[in-house]
Amino acid sequence: MARCEGKNRDGDQCKRGVRGDTRFCHVHEPEKDQAAGNEDDVAAEDLELLDLAPILLAGVMAVGVMLLLRGFGKW
């Protein structure tokens, strides 16, 4: 069985066997690494303060309505 061409954290060659038609094991498959990396990058880019503004505004408005109704004795 051929050895995986991937590198571990220490920089040494991986000791696992290759998987299928690739030159890498299940841990070091390039497609898997690229897809996981892209998802993390997209998730980090998607979460910004301007994206949270509508949620925060809705929360503030809900608290305001609750306090207004409480002042009128309806709550």
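That was protein one. Protein two is written in the same sequence-then-structure order:
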Amino acid sequence: MMSRNLRLFSLIFPLLLLASTLAAQELPSKISDEAFWQLVTDLSERDGMFPSDNFVSNELFMTDVMQDLKNRVPPGGIYLGVGPEQNFTYIAAIQPRMAFIIDIRRQNLAEHLMYKTLFELSADRREFLSRLFSRQLPAATQEPAGLQDILMLLRSAPPDAAFFITNLTAIRTHLTETHGFKLTAADHSSLEYILRAFFILGPDINYNGPPARNPNGVFPTFAQLLLESPPAGRADNFLSTEESFRIVQKLQKDNVIIPLVGNFAGPSAIRKVADYLRKYESAISAVYVSNVEQYLFQDPDNWRIFYRNLGSVPRDSGSVLIRTLLQKDSGQYSDSPAVRPGYGFRTMLFSIPDLIATFELDGIRTYADAVHTGNLTNSDPSTVEVEPGPSLGNLAVVLWPNLRPPSRVRVSVSSSEIHLEWPNTGRGDKTGFRISKQIAGEWTQPTRVTYASVCGSDPCIFRDSNVSAGTRYCYFVEAANYSDLGPALPAEYGEPSITVCATLR
């Protein structure tokens, strides 16, 4: 009887195994253009606001953890990240099967679509950078040059306006005609805005764009980020070798690096990614959060919502959180996201299971609790001292579009003044405005005005009497929320308005 049962089991077990295998769909290693755009559309949330353009990363020393990350995270997993190009470095390191990049700004989605096109159209990293900066490089006559050599060539090559137009046209055509993606008018504007910034500024572009928007040089340039070397001594990013470039290039061509619009403390983007992964019985392997938590902890609820969202994502015992901390020169870490002189970014790895388990047991109440939980980089997390940083008031509110810049700014001249006018849409979270002024091509120190001083009526009116006849003046206006931050910590938020110009006759 026993032998008969064993024979019966040996016949049934393979069928049960086959049924189980058929029930669990396999995560695709390549998806169609239609499926890619459907994911972008269905998983995204509404567009939000953040206080800067984030053209490139501002995080030096991220490669310090790269070898540890490679040792901990096996290839073929799922990656989730935030922000611009630094994601490609983590992706090249762990070689995931699929990656989702979630950012509150749709402009970041447009930037990743730009990168996607440049990866797909470029034969190698030399051509990739040539297209990115719209600088023609001489034809290569020898073995592929090192990254530092390529950057030197780029610095010596002048920006090429005709090449810029060619690149912009190629990007738009590739996205809309080759791939068939349904870009909005705002997407097209963002593509031009972003590519133009790289074209004008070249390898010296930084997080905020031009050097003038890099007070005290606290943000590294794109070139500095690419040439950064870990303690081992060799740069380790997505462009440091042709092999790293091709890892990301293949994933882009397979449509499995998927940019989304979403708030980490939002209602659906992360949870929809979680639902998608559960469908394929796939777990997250690495989540890069930058220093987003510092912004979320400025609000009593947003950080909790994020941890609940993160807890909904399938994970395993080795799932890693890549977190960027703001460190003082003397060694302490700040709980504030305010970047200021004397501080720099450091990257550490953390255990996602430990973080979520501690959160669910109500063991996290502060940002310091979070960075002391599951710390994989520091063997003694208690030595990671977190000091209170300057409160940025309701900066967390900027994660929702409450600080939109003034729209439809108009300019007019009287006999002795230039007037700026814009619709008064209500105070919202604005306590004032920052007005930048350009004289003969040079931007001067911005003027700060309170909401009450210019918006006592509709429209809001700013009068500039410090003008001379025959001189052309240009302006743009930013919404602001002033906290007691001191002169080194300007609190301007939101994209600037369209620049307007006038000449007093």
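Residues 393-403, 482-495 have pLDDT under 50 and may be disordered. Keep this in mind for the problem set.
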